[in-house]
Design brief:
This protein has about 375 residues and is mainly β. It folds into two domains: about 150 residues, Sandwich (Jelly Rolls); about 190 residues, Jelly Rolls (Sandwich), CATH 2.60.120.10. It is built from five helices and 25 strands. Strand 20 and strand 21 form a beta hairpin. The relative contact order is 0.13.
Amino acid sequence: MIETSTNPRFGINSYLEWVEREGLRVAHGLSLDLFEVETADWPRLGAKASAAHFDGSGDYCNMIVIDIPAGGSTLPQQHLYEEAYYILEGRGSTELEFADGSKRSFEWGPRSFFGIPLNAKYRHFNASGTQRALMVETTTLPMIMNIFHNEEFIFNTPSAFQDRIGADKYYVGEGDLYRGRPGNDVWETNFVPDLGSLELVAWEDRGKGSSNIKILLADGIMHVHISEIAPATYKKGHRHDAGTHVLTLTGGGYSLLWDEGSTDFTRVEWKHGVVFPPCEGQFHQHFVTSNHASRYVATGLGNLRYPLTSKKRRQSFATADRKQATSRSIKDGGNQIEYEDQDPRIHQIWLEEMRKHGITPQLTL
């Protein structure tokens, strides 16, 4: 006899179920100012935290804001998802222990950036006795939790990933630079002392005076790139997959977002700590409204070493006679809108902002 269930479990999001079981506070929006995200005690971490969920987060990555009190530290952690950390404010240190008994440690401060090698044991310490330390991590936890949907396996697997540890120099701010085609230069490391001062490489396919560099952390699968927009200019509109978390580091301005075929723009104002991941296939464009360059870091899934999907390979790699899709005009089957093809309102909106700020535009069309 076939028995039927009146409560079948279909359409499960194991990650969201885990967040609820954990009692982890959640902040949600199209964009968030991470300095204003409310955190609450998270017993697993031994500190305050909040998951940051965005309209454009996609299926693979999330962000978690971590607030370590003055003189405090997190509990030891170990897990099978990857993390890329950015320090919003405060100073402290991170200690790591690997399966072979070796250890690494480094000190961090505002705008430091680092990755945790997969399944390494680690702990964060706040060095101040009077001020909190505020950090945000982009993680692959949603993907890993939905693949395995087994908390014991994810957090208590003893397997060692010795090949992820990396060279000693990767923990003191040094690294290896791999030069590729324009836009595909990679800095491999585990720790960057200050993203605001990291040297970038010119890449004007996206706009006059623009520069960038990609960062590969702990031989992982996460995507990271730093971009800088020249003063009083703006980038070309473009689109890509969901889940690229854009975090403002320096400078000021705004971004416009719109869906293909739409005549309405959604506007996001920049300042340090503001994050927004554009939604799947959503066009977006970044504008500087000051005489200072503006820099941001973008984090997500899939990089040049490990693209993970055929779509990311097509978007990220150039051929001998064609640019990579992310910087190729939509007229040629790519994902970028050239200045001459953009909605005329876009330039006029920017010129009006420049007039309001008393700034002389450095981009003429």
